[in-house]
Amino acid sequence: MKKNSIITIFLLLPLFLFSQETLTGMIMDKNNPKDNLGVFGANVYWLNSSTGATTNEKGWFTIPYKKSYKKLVVSYVGYKTDTLIITNLEPIHHFIIPENELEEAKRRQHKDLLYKHKMFLQ
């Protein structure tokens, strides 16, 4: 019996030593809170490390975790980059905010530019 328990411990020990903890979460658009649509392709990475992930088509990500990792950075083109402080491995649901709302672009007519050019030359 003692021999079997020792063998079992040696077989299970590597699983515990090399098992990797992960953090999961969902990144969503602040402009669509009712739809709870995830953002596809958002970057999620640990600050000052090379460990990162990208959200899937539903906005979910899974990223490896170490106890030394404390700050999670979320970035996406056209949105503000956020840094989250992680204190536990509970799943994250985070809304990202657009960087700037685009204002209406005004189109100048070619005729106006020619008139101003002629006035300048005179």
Which stretches are poorly predicted, pLDDT < 50 over at least 5 residues? none
Which topology does CATH recognise?
Immunoglobulin-like
The major beta sheet can be summarized as:
4 strands, antiparallel
- What's the CATH architecture name? Sandwich
Radius of gyration: 26 Å
CATH class: Mainly Beta
Number of helices: 2
Shape: elongated
List the strand order in the largest sheet.
Answer: 3-2-5-6
Number of domains: 1
Distance between the termini: 107 Å
Task: Give a count of the beta strands, DSSP E runs of length 2 or more.
Answer: 7
Average pLDDT metric: 80
Helix content: 10-25%
Strand content: 25-35%
* The CATH homologous superfamily: Carboxypeptidase-like, regulatory domain
- Return the structural class: alpha+beta
Helix and strand pattern? HEEEEEEEH
Your description of this structure?
This protein has 122 residues and is an alpha+beta fold. The protein has a single domain, classed as Immunoglobulin-like. 24% of the residues lie in helices and 30% in strands. The chain has two helices and seven strands, in the order H-E-E-E-E-E-E-E-H. A hairpin with a 5-residue loop joins strand 2 (43-46) and strand 3.
